């Protein structure tokens, strides 16, 4: 009879198991490790850092609420990005992007940010980023999310396919179609 191979240790999964056992320091460590990347991930959906930061707080609240039911069935980051993707998509589907809710910082520095944004728009790189964002916004939801997970989120194809609940072949097709749409739109102009 063949021996079972021991699963390699996933330090994040170990931390999550500690969170489930009531270790608040482990929760803080997970937040420190993953919050910055998740803010960047959510910002790709909404192009608004304040909304992205708010959603990351929601994601970690969901993570904390699920602490006792967490089971190490896949990589911790796969589980985390599944929660993040669903949270972002739910927010998009609601269509309420909270644009009318501004933080105090945004209210105080609105003029400065508007001036900086005007200068940024003058730059060619910013124009390209705006065009890319526009094309991505027009893609079907699954194509857009697949592209963001793989190209901007740094998720591997197997992990992204698990997050989206599609086969790896379907994920490759989604990424190919979104990349092809971007190429066509950007090179036609």
Describe the overall structure:
The protein has helices spanning 11-20, 24-46, 49-65, 76-94, 104-108, 110-122, 124-138, 141-152, 157-164, 168-188. The protein is mainly α and 189 residues long. Helix 3 (49-65) packs across helix 4 (76-94), helix 8 (141-152) packs antiparallel against helix 9 (157-164) and helix 8 (141-152) packs across helix 10 (168-188).
The radius of gyration computed from the alpha-carbon positions, rounded to a whole number of angstroms, is 19 Å
Order of helices and strands: HHHHHHHHHH
Helical content band? over 70%
Q: Average the pLDDT over all residues and give the rounded result.
A: 80
Number of domains: 2
Separate helix tally: 10
The name of the CATH topology of the largest domain is Rna Polymerase Sigma Factor, Chain: A
End-to-end C-alpha gap: 63 Å
Assign an overall shape. Answer: globular
| Fraction of residues in β-strands | under 5%
Number of E-type strands? 0
Q: pLDDT below 50 for ≥5 consecutive residues: which ranges?
A: 98-112
Largest sheet: none
């Amino acid at each position: 009879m063949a021996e079972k191979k021991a699963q390699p240790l996933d330090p994040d999964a170990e931390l999550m198991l500690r969170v489930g056992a009531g270790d608040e320091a482990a929760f803080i460590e997970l937040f420190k490790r993953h919050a910055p990347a998740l803010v960047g991930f959510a910002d790709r959906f909404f192009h608004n850092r304040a909304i992205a930061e708010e959603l990351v707080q929601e994601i970690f609240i969901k993570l904390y609420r699920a602490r006792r039911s967490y089971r190490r069935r896949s990589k911790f980051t796969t589980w985390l990005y599944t929660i993040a993707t669903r949270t972002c998509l739910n927010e998009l589907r609601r269509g309420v992007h909270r644009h009318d809710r501004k933080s105090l910082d945004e209210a105080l520095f609105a003029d400065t940010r508007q001036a900086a944004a005007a200068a940024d728009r003058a730059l060619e790189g910013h124009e390209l980023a705006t065009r890319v964002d526009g094309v991505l916004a027009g893609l079907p939801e699954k194509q857009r999310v697949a592209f963001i997970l793989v190209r901007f989120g740094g998720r591997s194809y197997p992990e992204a396919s698990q997050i989206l609940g599609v086969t790896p072949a379907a994920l490759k097709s989604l990424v190919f179609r979104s990349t092809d749409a971007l190429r066509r739109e950007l090179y036609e102009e």
